[in-house]
Amino acid sequence: MENVVLVGVDGSAESREAAGWATAEAAARGWPLLFANACPQPVVADPLVEAAYLLATGRAAEPMFADLAAAARALGVVAECRVLRGSASDVLVRLSARAGLNVVGRRPRAGLPSRLGSVSSTLAAHSHCPTAVIPYRPPSVGHRDGAVSRSMFAGHVVAAVEPGPSASEVLTAAADLAQRHGLVLSALTVDSTGDRDHVPYPAGHLTRIGRQYPGLECGFHSLSGRPSHEIAQVARHAWMLVVGTRGFSGLSGIVHASVSQALLQHASSPVLVVPHAASER
């Protein structure tokens, strides 16, 4: 894994928003950027036709790449722009093996077909590195100041953790973001059983985080209810919501009610999905 921020771009407003976030994050990390535009494989088998198609696609992307590269240079970030053959999902999953962070935008979607075909859902399940999914917020849509100020976790990095080995990875990724940006880290667990006598398992992890990230303000909060609903509600104004993934995708992800997949569909805040053992891939 390399220290590169990978961004999927297609010229849409959603991808521009993701590219802006990724550029700022790359500047904060001191990492270079790779802007990737996926070019669907042409159905024509003629090599000359295919070459002409790819050349035309590259030329069409040049204005978009020029704007993205200029924004990166303004922040002192080195950027590479590439057009690659394949679907957006396949291209970004493949490139994620050589990246430290994968970033995509999220379009407002609804219904079964969009969940099965969502690029962000595929990346959350199969990316080799953490994936940040940035929701698009049209200029005319925003939160009233009063509503934001009443949100308990407004501006926090929120880590949604559950028992298991992924808890440490999720908290470490969240703590790294919070310290880098000078934000508060809030760890959440959701008890769906109604048993209030269970031991708050993230406490030990937070002690480790406190030693590893001195000066970081962090806290632990326990909720009850349906995990995806409760987390989406309390983290709706978070700077970033950090979750783990069990690797579910497509229909199996819906059947097993994967919390990370549900949050990708319903959370209004940016979501960072940390794959299990991401640091070892």
From TrEMBL:
What InterPro entries does the record point to?
Answer: Rossmann-like_a/b/a_fold (IPR014729), Universal_stress_UspA (IPR006015), UspA (IPR006016)
The protein's superkingdom reads Bacteria
- Domain named UspA is located at 4-135, 156-275
Q: Which family does it belong to?
A: Belongs to the universal stress protein A family.
Its name, as the record gives it, is Universal stress protein
